[in-house]
């Protein structure tokens, strides 16, 4: 992000100039904050696997699967539609059969 310009010496500032300078600094700060969040999300998506581990319904694998789903969703800020596609791709066997109707008709996965 662009660096804000150095402020003028205090003697050269008028009330209007000070307000304008503060408004400009706040705008720069807000822009930098949004860019940093966006960059963090992009970096997370690059470094975190998008695909979930396969899950067939084995109760012994559920906690690991749910943790992978929750953590990657939070870290990468996946949308509900992206999560639905991820679930369609990774579910197998009994797990897929159990939620098949939801995977077709749902707009967001309920965890």
Question: Topology, pairings included?
Answer:
Layout: H1 15-47, H2 59-76, H3 80-90, H4 93-105
Molecular structure report:
The chain is mainly alpha-helical. The chain has one domain. It is built from 4 helices and no strands. It is elongated. The mean pLDDT is 78.
What are the main properties of this structure?
111 residues, single chain, mainly alpha, 0% strand
Low-confidence stretches: none
Q: Please compute the radius of gyration using only Cα atoms.
A: 23 Å
How many distinct domains? 1
Secondary structure: number of strands: 0
Helical run tally: 4
- Our estimate of the beta-strand percent is under 5%
Whole-number average pLDDT? 78
Separation of termini? 37 Å
What is the N-to-C succession of helices and strands?
A: HHHH
Global outline: elongated
Structural class by secondary-structure content? mainly alpha
Q: Portion of residues in helices?
A: 55-70%
Q: Main β-sheet, in a few words?
A: none
What is this structure, in a nutshell?
This protein is mostly helical and 111 residues long. The protein has one domain.
């Amino acid at each position: 992000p662009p660096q804000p310009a150095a402020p003028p010496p205090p003697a050269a500032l008028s009330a209007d100039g000070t307000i304008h300078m503060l408004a400009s600094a706040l705008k720069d700060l807000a822009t930098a904050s949004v860019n940093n969040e966006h960059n963090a999300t992009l970096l997370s998506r690059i470094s975190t696997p998008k695909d979930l581990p396969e899950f067939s319904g084995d109760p012994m694998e559920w906690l690991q699967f749910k943790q992978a789903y929750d953590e990657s969703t939070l870290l990468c800020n996946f949308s509900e539609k992206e999560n639905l596609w991820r679930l369609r791709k990774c579910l197998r066997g009994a797990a897929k059969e159990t939620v098949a109707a939801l995977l077709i008709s749902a707009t967001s996965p309920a965890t």
